[in-house]
Design brief:
Radius of gyration: 20 Å
Number of strands: 10
Oligomer: single chain
Shape: globular
Largest sheet: 8 strands, mixed
Structural class: alpha/beta
Helix content: 25-40%
């Protein structure tokens, strides 16, 4: 089911209402702006990988991949019932989360016709009590009714591997660096740094250049 967040972003990026949900060959495109096809993807990028690979053969494509910056949780007992409570989640999103998606998208990005745009969004997360059977299966104490856009905190574009290196502040890393140094630099767990380094290597942003003990060394490509 399409969320309110998806509809809001689609309307913002399309040139007009007539330029949304456009049929193009075997695909339905979220929005078109000039010669650029726009796909808005709140779910995993891996789900649209074949579609994007096909579209890039002939078209410029912009993937809009929102990351939740702040989340206001709104609870209801039923879909049509009154609001039971609102609270601001203490969790905050981070732009580095884009690597969680790119790790499954390295066969597509970078591409001269592709732009990945990341709006950091503030949303209302509308929740309902879960179906009992699904609760046992997924472990959640709620089910999502909707995501509603409140505001866009900032927007970031990624077109080249240089954009990825700028995101991690590679100019301020040792040359070469290992994942322990990367983890300390961007204040993340070592496992996350290893995932980021893998993504950077697969996209061609960095090369391996030896070892320091058991640690692989990396340098900007």
């Amino acid at each position: 089911m399409e969320t309110s967040l998806h509809r809001s972003l689609k309307g913002m990026y399309a040139a007009s209402e007539a330029d949304t949900e456009v049929r193009l060959g075997d695909y339905r495109i979220d929005a078109i702006r000039g010669d650029e096809l726009i796909e808005i993807q709140f779910a995993s990028l891996s789900a649209i990988r074949p579609k994007i690979q096909s579209l890039l053969q002939r078209h410029d494509v912009r993937i809009v991949k929102p990351i939740i910056n702040r989340r206001r949780i709104v609870r209801q007992a039923t879909a049509e019932g009154p609001v039971l409570g609102r609270r601001l989640s203490p969790k905050r999103g981070a732009l580095l989360e884009i690597f969680d998606e790119l790790i499954y998208f390295t066969r597509v990005f970078p591409h001269p016709r592709l732009t990945i745009e990341v709006p950091m969004v503030n949303v209302q997360h509308w929740r309902l009590p879960p179906d009992r059977r699904k609760r046992r299966r997924c472990g959640k104490d709620y089910k999502t009714k909707d995501y509603v856009l409140e505001s866009i905190e900032s927007t970031h574009e990624f077109r080249t591997t240089k954009d990825l290196l700028n995101l991690i502040g590679s100019d301020h890393l040792p040359h070469p660096f290992d994942t322990a140094e990367l983890a300390g630099h961007i204040a993340c767990p070592r496992g996350t740094a290893q995932q980021i380094a893998y993504c950077l290597r697969q996209t061609g942003a960095v090369d391996t250049c030896g070892k320091r003990g058991n640690a692989i060394l990396y340098r900007a490509a």
